[in-house]
């Protein structure tokens, strides 16, 4: 049996694109889709979905191939605390880190940002709004 993906539908939230059935998109999985010439990554991080442009604003790397991780807290010397587990993606080329929710970089959140998109689970489908 082959599932058919519906044609995109334009809504007030943007154009609705069904990426896949939720059951085919397990924790830790990610997809890169091309919509209107834009490469967009959709990631399932522990059951929470994120979508962001697959081009790093630094030098254009395929950002969504990067590692999803947390970051280090601001602590005194010789003290280390890992925080915000799985809230960031690290660029595979030079290691800049971007918050999955907002697309803002850790280093310069006001000036360096990657575009994010709304993604939702609706009637058992993973849906991206662009
Ligand atoms: S291209 Fe992403 S940090 Fe340089």
From TrEMBL:
Q: Which residues form the Rieske domain?
A: 16-128
Residues in coiled coil = none
Record keywords, A-Z: 2Fe-2S, Dioxygenase, Iron, Iron-sulfur, Metal-binding, Oxidoreductase
Could you cite one Gene Ontology molecular function of this protein?
A: oxidoreductase activity, acting on paired donors, with incorporation or reduction of molecular oxygen
* Name listed for the protein in its UniProt record: Ferredoxin subunit of nitrite reductase or a ring-hydroxylating dioxygenase
**PROSITE patterns recorded for this chain?**
RIESKE
Give the InterPro entries listed for this entry: Rieske_2Fe-2S (IPR017941), Rieske_2Fe-2S_sf (IPR036922)
């Amino acid at each position: 049996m082959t599932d058919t993906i519906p044609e995109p539908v334009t809504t007030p939230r943007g154009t609705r694109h069904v990426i896949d059935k939720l059951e085919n998109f397990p924790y830790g999985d990610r997809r890169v889709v091309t919509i209107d010439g834009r490469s967009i990554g959709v990631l399932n991080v522990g059951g929470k979905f994120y979508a962001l442009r697959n081009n790093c604003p630094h030098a254009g790397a395929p950002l969504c191939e990067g590692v999803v991780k947390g970051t280090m807290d601001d602590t005194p010397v010789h003290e280390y605390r890992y925080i915000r587990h799985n809230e960031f993606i690290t660029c595979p080329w030079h290691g800049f880190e971007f918050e999955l929710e907002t697309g803002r970089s850790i280093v310069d959140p006001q000036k360096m940002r990657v575009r994010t998109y709304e993604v939702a689970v609706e009637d058992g489908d993973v849906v991206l709004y662009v």
